[in-house]
Amino acid sequence: MSTREVPIVIITGYLGSGKTTLMQNILKQEKRKIALIVNDMGSINIDASILNKTGNKVAGIEMVEMQNGCICCTLRDEFMAEIERLSEDRSIEAIFVEASGISEPSSIAGAFVNYEEMTENTRVYLKSVVSVVDVDRIYREFLHNLNAEDDTEDGDIINLIIDQIEFCNLLILNKTDLLSKEQLEEVKEGLRGLQQEAEMIECTKGDVDLDVLLNRADFDFDEVEAYSAVQRALNNCENDDVKACVDEYGISSFVFEEKKPFNRGAFNNLVEEYPEELIRSKGYIWFSDDWKHVQLFEQAGRNASVTELSEWVSSWPKEEIDKLVDDFPDIKDDWDETYGDRCNQVVFIGKGYEKSEIVKLLYACIENAE
């Protein structure tokens, strides 16, 4: 157990998952004096307004509203300052943080852990990262097909939802009343393919006991980071292994690496006809018509997206590359004479697929760029 005194619980989950309802229920329990930080991306903090109207202020709850930004990036310093200010109140037993629905929990937790390590006299410590999951949405949009007109924006959304599921040490499965017992079991099995260690708590309308959230082992960043199916695959799979790594749930994974670029059209065609056996894919790729940009490829269920990120080092001016190599000579260890640091590296996770067939499909999209 941490020697620090004030536990911090971060509540994540996509818009509409039930975070605010969960907080309303927690505030009503009045078991311990807690403080609440509510982060909403809008200029008017709607979640804080809803919580204010529940009448919970009579219980001595202190609530801080943070808006017009996200605590995982633009509001990070302000967030830490508020945490410290609240912890100075010796009567506060815990601080709950309701993160914005588009927050990346790993960024929030990483910033918090770094702050803990760098601040000697802080009284706070990270107790849990909780992900609230709308099981009905997961059932409909991740496990089963959407209508074609829903495809455009939902690919990015479902990937964010999966990121939130992968990085947590407690899953709150909300809205279970909307599914049958069989459907809920299907959702739980699907989630276990992505997140095998976090405890799952089933509820309706965010009704969870406060003690369940606080009476547990302290958060361990490295351990939670290793929970995700993507990280397990990177840690455990040998790239030249002819067999995929198989875990206790029957989920297997492998890492595909290839220096040569993908043909953009061929890769897009593959994504449109993506193998149903693949649950999750994530990694960095590049295309033969763009030697400059790193592309992030993400797939969750039937949703997939390709997002342009930073630039490959080998696309920089020569003098900048030379300076970087002088400072970090190890960068040359995996440097290719033709492609530099450009490389496709993608983790594939699924159930019941043939690795050789997936690899064949991928190599059919590779072309020899000159």
Measured distance between first and last alpha carbons: 58 Å
- CATH architecture heading of the largest domain: 3-Layer(aba) Sandwich
Structural class computed from helices and strand pairing: alpha/beta
Largest sheet: 7 strands, parallel
CATH topology tier name of the largest domain: Rossmann fold
Can you lay out the helices and strands and say which pair or pack?
Layout: E1 6-12, H1 19-29, E2 34-40, H2 46-52, E3 62-67, H3 76-87, E4 94-98, H4 105-118, E5 124-134, H5 135-143, H6 151-166, E6 170-174, H7 181-192, E7 199-202, H8 210-214, H9 221-225, H10 229-236, E8 245-246, E9 252-258, H11 264-272, E10 278-287, E11 290-300, E12 303-311, H12 318-327, E13 344-350, H13 355-363
Parallel strand pairs: 1-4, 1-5, 2-3, 2-4, 5-6, 6-7
Antiparallel strand pairs: 8-9, 9-13, 10-11, 10-13, 11-12
Helix pairs in contact: 5-7
